[in-house]
Predict the structure.
Amino acid sequence: MNCDEAKMLLHALLDNELDAGHAREAEAHIASCPACAAELASQREMQRVLADTNLRYTAPTSLRIRIEASLPQPQRQQPSRRSVLRGFAMGSAVSALAASGVVAVVLRQDDQQRILSEVVSAHLRSLQAGHLIDVVSTDQHTVKPWFNGKLDVAPPVIDLTAQGFTLVGGRLDYIDARAIGAVVYKRRQHVVNLFVAQTSSTEHRPPKTQTMQGFNCRRWGERGLNFWAVSDIGADELAEFVDKFEAAMKANVEG
Amino acid sequence: MPANDDLQKAQRFREAALPHLDDVYTLARYLLRDASDAEDAVQECYLRALKHFDSYRGPAMKPWLFAILRNVCNAEYGRRAHRHSAIEDTPGAAEQTPIWQETEASPETEVLRSRDAGAIRKLIDALAEPFKETFVLREISNLSYREIAEAVGAPVGTVMSRLARARAMLRAAWMAEEEHSK
């Protein structure tokens, strides 16, 4: 192998694109040629510095939301589903019609299943590098005001560090074609996403845990808000999280 | 009724394409060098991708999205930001500018100083096309040579020579700047 060939293959060598045979040949040449060895060393050095630097950009949340909004949305075909975030099911109108109606019950489960799947997808998305948190803070008095003006709802932000769940920040997310708030906690190395959406129903809905794709999701309704807590921690730990959160909320209200 | 199919398609598209949003946006930022142009191009890219999602047969989603983004950038924006700096990479041009020439003068002991991301992004932004694009796809988007070839519609050999030149040019610019700042 001559230098011309080696100088071309050197990049493929750097990028692990050479098969074993060519790699051996290129390495043999480089071992015997100081000029090519120097070239390889300097390119390797540059690659190392580049790899140590974050050269990627993060797409703005607004862009993500614009793209989501441009995709066909379920409610265009089924307008009734628009109400899902306002009430867990069909809103108070259906409740008033007596929730015992079979149709209503079926629709309710259908909607809830879809919302659950969206919540779990949002949780998964949040676990990708750089997506977890828009506002990074362990201070509830920083995270809470951050949501102001971004949502039609003020998600409660409570520090649960003392109870074993560390507040790490907040994020805008997108569920059922609407922007909603996500408050992010950590339990050891596990992420807990608490999604909060407004509902027209002020009725209390007891927590219920469901599992999807290996994630536990515990949802409940309180004070005119719907909550979904999603994590890969165990169902009992997630229930503990919800209990601690609700206890702290009540303490806040009473205090 | 096509409604349900559309919804299912949109859902499959969401799961397949949206996880790559940051990658697509990153490439758009380097190609267009403007945040709001990049946003518009990425949105257009996703619209087109959804439209052609039926014809998508794999294998990899990322090179496919990149190929669409390139078309959007070329068609809608004319890559105006750096048109003036484009260099022909015909074999003739490559002969005139040997790929190793730029760095041959550097002593092997010379070490690049770490710089902040902003300074390096500027150096990359200043690279001429089509070398910048190949470089970004390899070093930042982590595509394989074959995937780059697929995304830019060029043979693997061309990808290799563009990459070699891109690296040589970047290193030369980097060294020159360090020389300057001493």
Remarks:
- Chain A touches chain B through 46 residues (CB under 8 Å).
